[in-house]
Design a protein that fits this description.
Layout lengths: L1 H10 L7 H27 L1 H9 L7 H21 L3 H23 L3 H20 L6 H9 L6 H7 L1 H6 L2 H8 L1
Helix pairs in contact: 1-7, 2-4, 3-4, 4-5, 5-6
């Protein structure tokens, strides 16, 4: 029972019961996850060059090893965020890589907003998902529902079952909200 509770707490998203908000979160999560994957491929295409130009420049130890860590965090973490599976740890890893990227940009160009812009936007989005989880329309939401049928409210379950929620009459919706 305790193990089940801890698993539920890892997967359970913070829930806003508005299906429009949940749909928007899913769209942002999928878009950012898909867009981030290419960064990992770019790093792996020439790992030694990346390690010298970015990681060694910052004075971090083991630049090639840390470059592989960053590349595989992006290659594995971004699809996990897109699917909404293990979203919090994946987003935390991606936030960490973006924080290092922001540090690199500041060290190279100071507080030049055009240079810092993309990594700051990615960092903010990944921090949001690390704190809030993937939302109801995600694999994490399904796992939460599967692990503990009582972990989500009746209303959250209705939002997950979008077609029932949309097909409900106004009287049914009033009953659900009470």
């Amino acid at each position: 029972m305790a193990a089940n509770f801890s698993l539920v707490s890892i997967f359970k998203p913070n829930v806003n019961l508005n299906w429009v908000a949940q749909t928007t979160l899913a769209i942002v999560r999928v878009t950012v996850g898909i867009m981030m994957v290419h960064n990992g491929f770019d790093k792996l295409a020439n790992i030694d060059s990346f390690a010298q130009a970015y990681v060694a420049y910052l004075g971090l130890p083991f630049p090639v090893f840390l470059s592989y860590i960053a590349a595989y965090t992006e290659l594995i973490g971004a699809p996990l965020v897109a699917f909404g599976l293990l979203t919090r740890p994946a987003a935390l890893g991606l936030f960490s890589t973006m924080a290092v990227a922001m540090y690199h940009h500041v060290k190279v160009a100071g507080l030049s907003l055009p240079y810092l812009e993309l990594s700051a936007i990615y960092a903010a989005i990944f921090l949001f998902f690390a704190v809030n989880g993937a939302g109801l329309f995600s694999v994490d939401g399904l796992i939460t529902y599967w692990l503990n049928k009582n972990a989500l409210s009746h209303q959250a379950k209705q939002v997950m079952k979008l077609e029932k929620s949309l097909a409900a009459t106004p009287a049914d919706k009033a009953t659900v909200n009470s």
